[in-house]
Amino acid sequence: KIRIKKSYNKFSKLIPVRIRHSLKTIVYGENPFSSMGFRYFGPIDGHNIKLLIKYFEYAKTCNEPVFLHIKTTKGKGYSFAEEDTIGKWHGVGPFNIETGSILSKQNNTSIKWSEGISNLLLEEAKLNKKIHVITPAMIFGSGLIKFQKELPSQLTDCGIAEDHAVIMANALSISGQIPVVMLYSTFLQRAYDAINHDVCRINQHVVFLIDRSGIIGEDGSTHQGVFDLSLLNALPNLEILMPKDLGSAKKLLNYALYVAKGPVAIRYPRGSVQKDFNLNDKAIEKFEIILPLKDNNIITYGEDVLEFKKYLNEYNLDYGLINAQFIKPLDLELLKNMKNSKLIVYENNLIHGGLGSSLLIANSKLNLNIDVKIIGIDDQYVEHGNIQTIKDKIGLNIEDFVRKLK
Q: Who contacts 369 (Cβ-Cβ below 8 Å, separation ≥6)?
């Protein structure tokens, strides 16, 4: 018997891969990756597991960097996903496998925040042709399907290029348009340099609608929107707003579109919001007093305002409640009226760089002697999980917190 080492058998199986690569090089010539020192292989059928394994095994024998160009079909094997052209199947919850219909948890009285904000924007864009929406490949995720159908000329999908979206918005603003950039909180990080350098530095009027702000749950740890506020809070000229419901969202959006002279960011969460709302003629206040000010007060923003109001009333606690719908700039006049009081700051965001940090600075500068206590997310990355489960784990359960105040 002739004994042959296992390594030889392994190598012999890779000969077709090497020959195929050599022939492609002869026929098509060098490619950009080869010219940069990579061993390029592809395109490779990403659904052929055996073929992929051959290439992976061969890649391990190479002494230089390897570039494997693998082509796949998104949603392969499920017709509804394969035929998706708008991103409906990019990330899904429970659905009916036979019909492909998504099993929605919404009722008839609620709507997704992203869809609600998009509808408000559509109303304004129909009245003002200068409004132009830019989205980095998030038409479906940002609830812009209806907008795209009704006002396609006022919407640009610039692809997965957040920094380009911001720079394009800057150019539109300079030319007299009202640009609105819609993107997720987590993807705003990709555009941070452009927001700082190309928009805020020159105080250009660009509106940023930041979806999925705060703890957002099952989208995953990397998508938790707990950084955008701290990142944006450091930028001069930028105003940061957050509505508690669609009624306040409409007012804040109109302020951002028609009143503000510089950049404005409006944050809103993932999830659902009441569809119907009543508008009042009350002027917009930076800090809205929800429950009359006392010696002990709580300040927060977004939907958490409504939850605090519910439980403070339910447990009959003598606390004032403030809605910081303008997270930046602060309402300094109202703060001056709270001198020598106690203030609890609750935020669904990192403590560092959040509302509480800004209040501490103002408290120190103005010598207000307000006893400030901050409840928020410590210096950590937030894990994947159900929103309420995460809040329970990191000490942000509002009902538990209010109960302990008794």
A: 339, 340, 363
| Location of structure tokens 């429970």 | 94
Asked if residue 309 and residue 337 are part of one domain, the reply reads yes
Domains held by the chain: number? 3
Pairing status of strand 264-267 against strand 178-184: unpaired
Dump the DSSP string for 65-101: -EEEEEE--TTTT-HHHHT-SSSTTSS--SB-TTT--
Examine residue 251 and state whether it is found in any structural domain, yes or no.
Answer: yes
Q: Output the domain CATH number for residue 326.
A: 3.40.50.920
CA 74/CA 72 separation, integer angstroms:
6
CB neighbour list of residue 79: distance below 8 Å, 6 or more residues apart:
100
How far apart CA 121 and CA 176 sit, in angstroms, is: 18
- The residue out of 239, 274, 309 marking a domain boundary is 274
Do both 35 and 177 map to the same domain?
Answer: no
End-of-domain residue from the set 213, 243, 274? 274
Q: Which residues are catalytic?
A: 74, 162, 190
Task: Kindly give the pairing relationship between strand 264-267 and strand 207-211.
Answer: parallel
Range of the domain at 350: 288-404
Same domain, 323 and 253: no
- Compute the distance between CA of residue 181 and CA of residue 137 in angstroms, rounded to an integer: 12
Say if residue 220 is in the same domain as residue 301: no
**What does each of the 406 residues of the chain score in pLDDT, given as a tens digit?**
445 454 444 444 555 666 665 655 554 556 788 888 888 888 999 999 999 999 999 999 998 999 999 999 988 888 888 888 777 777 777 888 888 887 776 678 899 999 999 999 999 999 999 999 999 999 999 999 999 999 999 999 999 999 999 999 999 999 999 999 999 999 999 999 999 999 999 999 999 999 999 998 877 888 888 999 999 999 999 999 999 999 999 999 999 999 999 999 999 999 999 998 888 888 899 999 999 999 999 999 999 999 999 999 999 999 999 999 999 999 999 999 999 999 999 999 999 999 999 999 999 999 999 999 999 999 999 988 888 899 999 999 999 999 999 7
